[in-house]
Specification:
The chain has a three-stranded antiparallel sheet. The C terminus is likely disordered. It has a single domain, classed as Orthogonal Bundle (Arc Repressor Mutant, subunit A), CATH 1.10.10.10. Helices cover about 60% and strands about 10% of the residues. α1 packs across α5 and α2 crosses α5. The longest helix has 25 residues. The protein is mostly helical.
């Protein structure tokens, strides 16, 4: 059994480092977006719907590397505020499809300027090249299949 002294230091944990950086960057972008009434994740949902058009909840969750529950918590305020519509998909009535509304497009335009300011601040602090390299590295990590498939979805107890 490992003791507290034999545990690896937190700064050696890749997951912790990525999550801490993500929280820090998200909080900064959230402050820039606050006047628009959007949070970073909500802004990203609106951008995805603008670019891709109507998407099912499953397709959007997959595209955003997000589980349906987390996506659901983020789309409820967007629906409540009339920024998106949720309807049954034409191809499958059981599937729900998300659509950007005119109000959503308008809010997205307002938020784009604030997002651009956040993006410029980040790149000024870290350099455009380093920021671009970081985005590429993070996209590669998000697209990787490094988790052993035999353990995905199993608890620590059932994996033994």
């Amino acid at each position: 059994m490992k003791t507290a002294n034999s545990l690896p230091p937190p700064e050696e944990c890749n997951c912790f480092a990525v999550r801490a950086a993500a929280r820090h960057v998200s909080q900064c972008y959230d402050r820039f977006l606050a006047p628009t009434g959007l949070r970073t994740t909500q802004y990203s949902i609106l951008v995805r719907l603008k670019r891709k058009g109507p998407l099912t909840i499953n397709a959007l969750a997959e595209a955003m590397v997000m589980d349906r529950t987390t996506l659901g918590r983020n789309i409820l305020p967007l629906q409540r505020d009339g920024l998106i519509k949720i309807k049954s998909a034409a191809s499958d009535r059981r599937a729900k499809e998300l659509r950007l509304t005119k109000a959503g497009e308008s809010r997205l335009q307002q938020a784009l300027e604030r997002w651009s300011q956040a993006q410029a601040r980040f790149e000024a602090a870290f350099g455009e090249k380093r920021a671009a390299d970081l985005r590429e590295l993070l996209r590669t990590a998000a697209a990787s299949e490094f988790a052993p498939t035999s353990l995905i979805g199993k608890s620590a107890t059932s994996a033994r």
